[in-house]
Design a protein that fits this description.
By secondary structure, the protein is α/β, with parallel strands linked by helices. It has one domain: DNA polymerase III subunit chi (Rossmann fold, 3-Layer(aba) Sandwich). The protein is 33% helix and 25% strand. A seven-stranded parallel sheet has the order 3-4-2-5-6-1-7, with helices on both faces. The longest helix has 17 residues. The chain is globular.
């Protein structure tokens, strides 16, 4: 499994959500199923709205897990993904309980101090589980 921490230079939550949408679009276009994991239901609903409007010239087929777990881009929390071997974009502060279902994981880090601390802990936990997470500067 490939695990990457994409590091943003800003501390703005909106930039982090926008990056998640861009990554979901890119993965979907490459034919990969995407599970976009939010921190809570409110964030999932914000991402649902953002995926409709973040890029005027493209459409990302998506839905909330409870409405359509088979959508190409699924927004959810701790639900088991309907499709395995896809991409997990994790905006949740903790690790997914379904890590083994994914072939790739992306954690999006910004410069907000509390989030940085949580992401450092996740990096450590991935290593503890035997993975080799990589850092990618954006």
């Amino acid at each position: 499994m490939r695990i990457e921490f994409y590091v943003l230079s800003s501390a703005t939550p909106a930039d982090r959500q926008r990056a998640a949408c861009q990554l979901a679009l890119k993965a979907w276009r490459a034919g990969m199923p995407v599970f976009l994991r939010g921190a809570d239901q409110a964030q999932c609903e914000e991402l649902d709205e953002l995926l409709w409007r973040f890029k005027a010239d493209s459409f990302v087929p998506h839905d909330l897990h409870q409405h359509n777990p088979q959508a190409p881009v699924v927004l959810g929390l701790d639900e088991q993904p309907a499709t395995s071997q896809g991409l997990l974009i994790n905006l949740n502060p903790g690790l997914s309980p379904h890590l083994e279902q994914f072939s790739r994981v992306i954690e999006i880090v910004n410069q907000e101090p509390q989030l940085l601390a949580l992401c450092r802990e996740n990096f450590r936990l991935y290593r503890q589980k035997g993975y080799d997470p990589q850092r990618v500067e954006l």
